[in-house]
Design goal:
Length: 128
């Protein structure tokens, strides 16, 4: 069972513990949304190559591409809906960004196993 780690500041860590809830951020509001956009483009490009690969799971990849097309999500910046992200790493000794998160560099690291993730609540967001 792999443990994944999340790095956060003191206030956010306190909120996770008190509420047993993990909040994610709409990728459009990240300090560097380009990372997700770049990764998403590579993901779509890889799916397009896999569809052309005979055998294997070509039909499943084609279905994924069709779903992205129907959602207008092949180009992530054209996606009409919100996509929320949270950052985790398998590396227990460094934050994924390579720097501490939070006030004056203070950061909390906490590890989660798949069982622990199942017990967390992920608050839903509704819009008017």
């Amino acid at each position: 069972m792999v443990t994944v780690y999340h790095y956060t500041d003191t206030q956010a860590f306190k909120g996770v513990i008190e509420n047993a809830a993990l909040w994610a951020t709409d990728f459009r509001y990240l300090n560097d949304s380009g990372e997700l956009i770049y990764t998403w483009a590579a993901f779509v490009e890889r799916l397009e190559k896999l569809v052309k690969n005979p055998g294997g799971h070509a039909q499943a990849y084609a279905a994924q591409l069709e779903a992205l097309t129907l959602l207008n999500a092949r180009d992530l910046m054209q996606f009409d809906d919100a996509m929320f992200v949270a950052c985790f790493t398998e590396l227990p000794t460094k934050s994924p960004s390579g720097r501490a998160t939070g006030t004056k560099g203070a950061a909390w690291r906490w590890g989660l196993t798949p069982n622990a993730l199942e017990r967390l609540r992920f608050p839903s967001i509704t819009t008017a």
